[in-house]
Design a protein that fits this description.
It is a single chain. The protein is mostly helical and 255 residues long. It has one domain. 86% of the residues lie in helices and 0% in strands. The chain contains nine helices and no strands. The chain is elongated and about 65 Å long.
Length: 255
């Protein structure tokens, strides 16, 4: 009942979890940069994380670009600034909305799937069996997923940027009366390579976070179906929170 004791327990628990996560991430990084590498597992994870996520990322991007164009046009009309729609849509998609929204969708799909898969392997003692056979789970299970996420998520975000800008273009030209050639020219003249590059750097960081949270929460999941379900939920929530926090930190560095 002592409030100070409750605060102390919460602080100690948070510090303990942060330390475990840091040690887990460090072991994963060492497994990523040191041979041997299991290229078959990496390729399988590239397909699972990247190719099968294309539909959800594409739909998210096109509707985000379309809605962004409508909102910017509505707000800009109050100040006679409708002509800035292609500029703001382009920079908003490439620098912020493309990386963040695509990564959030991947967090819901990929982090949950990784946590559920690894959690089920832990419950059925497959990870213990791997250690018995002298196979390091950090090299065989975690490193391929992290490497695949680092490769695939920037590619998915690049595709999301293109689709998102196209969604804004489609709405602007079909519903808002913009000239297509002028819209494309304004977009190309305004967006710089750093706008796209900064978004891709964010995407690589977000990809590492997505895979790391799925691996960590699956690895520390409790026994039984409830433990695996809790690990899945924790993976998605923690990945989303860390994506928002790291996005702010990276944006403050890039500005």
């Amino acid at each position: 009942m002592n409030p100070l004791a409750s605060i102390g327990r919460a602080s100690l628990g948070m510090s303990r979890t942060t330390g475990r996560l840091a040690l887990f991430a460090w072991r994963c990084i060492l497994a990523m940069i040191r041979p041997p590498w299991f290229f078959g597992q990496i390729w399988r994870q590239i397909l699972s994380i990247g190719f099968y996520s294309l539909p959800v990322v594409g739909l998210t991007a096109v509707f985000t670009g379309a809605a962004l164009a409508l909102n910017i046009y509505t707000g800009g009309a109050r100040f006679n600034a409708e002509s800035f729609v292609p500029n703001i849509v382009g920079i908003g998609i490439t620098r912020e909305l493309g990386p963040v929204l695509a990564s959030l969708m991947l967090a819901g799909r990929v982090s949950a799937a990784i946590a559920a898969e690894i959690g089920a392997m832990k419950v059925t003692e497959q990870i213990d069996a791997m250690r018995t056979l002298s196979t390091d789970p950090f090299r065989y299970l975690f490193a391929p997923r992290l490497i695949a996420a680092l490769i695939v998520v920037p590619l998915l975000v690049l595709i999301a940027d293109i689709i998102g800008v196209f969604g804004g273009f489609a709405v602007a030209t079909q519903s808002l009366g913009f000239n297509g050639a002028l819209y494309v020219r304004n977009t190309m003249d305004f967006i710089t390579s750093w706008d796209v590059g900064s978004g891709l750097i964010k995407a690589a960081v977000f990809g590492f976070i997505i895979a790391l949270m799925g691996c960590y929460h699956g690895y520390v999941s409790g026994r039984g179906a409830q433990g695996v379900g809790r690990a899945t939920t924790n993976a998605v929530v923690s990945a989303a929170i860390l994506i928002f926090a790291s996005n702010y930190l990276l944006t403050s560095l890039f500005v």
